[in-house]
Specification:
The chain is globular and about 55 Å long. 32% of the residues are buried. The mean pLDDT is 95. With 211 residues, the chain is mostly helical. The chain starts with a strand and ends with a helix. The strands form 2 sheets. A two-stranded antiparallel sheet has the order 1-2. A two-stranded antiparallel ribbon has the order 3-4. The protein has 2 domains: 1-41, no CATH class; 46-209, no CATH class. It has helices at residues 48-62, 66-97, 103-110, 120-131, 135-141, 143-149, 159-175, 184-209, and strands at 2-8, 15-21, 29-30, 37-38. Bound molecules: zinc ion (ZN). Zinc ion (ZN) binds at residues 9, 11-12, 14, 31, 33-34, 36. The site of zinc ion (ZN) has 8 residues, from loops.
Length: 211
């Protein structure tokens, strides 16, 4: 998958477009106006792929591809959930063996990860493993998560169920039923929800590992 990033030239303020493919590096380029070199580093993240998928989801909203934006937003969340789980397994493994996990080892760990349950199952699974409590309990006890959820008053009963209904149900409607008529309003909202969920998951990582 291709990822684009619109940056600003530090020398002249001109807009510069950078691109990357998959999880490869951002291609260095030069400013079209002043020819200064422009490069981009990925943010430190459990999942660089997630950060890029969120960019791509927004780009699809802007470009008018609303159903695709929703699907990509949901994949961004799922990617972060699995990487956070694999980070936990990897850290535990490293603490006892002083070896980094091999791809074969990670594949083995993936079997422990719940394949069903939409968002609610995996969210609880990862939250319990990382924070020791279910997703909703973490959200209620964490200040940053509380601040994020304050923007979604309807989520008061259960944050995980809210995300399931408002993002993953719309994703399922597209992926499982072939619904391709999502609107801009739905896509913008789903992007916002995906960013919110990932922000809560980043907070779990920060508390556990001080990242
Ligand atoms: Zn420039």
């Amino acid at each position: 998958m291709k990822f684009n990033w619109e940056g600003t030239c530090e020398s002249c303020g001109c807009t510069v477009l950078l691109s990357a493919y998959g999880d490869g590096p951002w291609q260095d380029t030069s400013c079209p106006a002043c020819h200064c070199p422009v490069g981009l580093m990925d943010p430190l993240s459990v999942s660089v792929t997630t950060e890029r998928l969120l960019l791509r989801s927004k780009a699809e909203v802007n470009g008018g591809d609303y159903s695709l934006a929703i699907v990509i937003g949901a994949i961004a969340v799922e990617s972060f959930l699995t990487r956070l789980f694999l980070k936990l397994k990897g850290m535990t493994h490293y603490a006892t063996t002083f070896n980094l996990p091999s791809p074969v080892q990670e594949e083995d760990w993936e079997k422990e990860y719940p394949r069903s349950g939409g968002f609610t199952g995996p969210a609880d699974f990862v939250s319990k493993n990382i924070t020791g409590m279910p997703f909703d309990d973490f959200v209620r006890k964490n200040n940053l998560a509380m601040a994020i959820m304050a923007r979604f008053p309807a989520a008061q009963v259960s944050a995980k169920q809210y995300f399931q209904d408002e993002l993953f149900k719309l994703r399922n409607r597209i992926v499982h039923w072939g619904y391709v008529n999502s609107t801009e309003v739905e896509a913008l909202r789903c992007h916002d929800l995906a960013v919110s969920i990932v922000s809560i998951l980043r907070e779990m990582d920060k508390i556990k590992y001080g990242a």
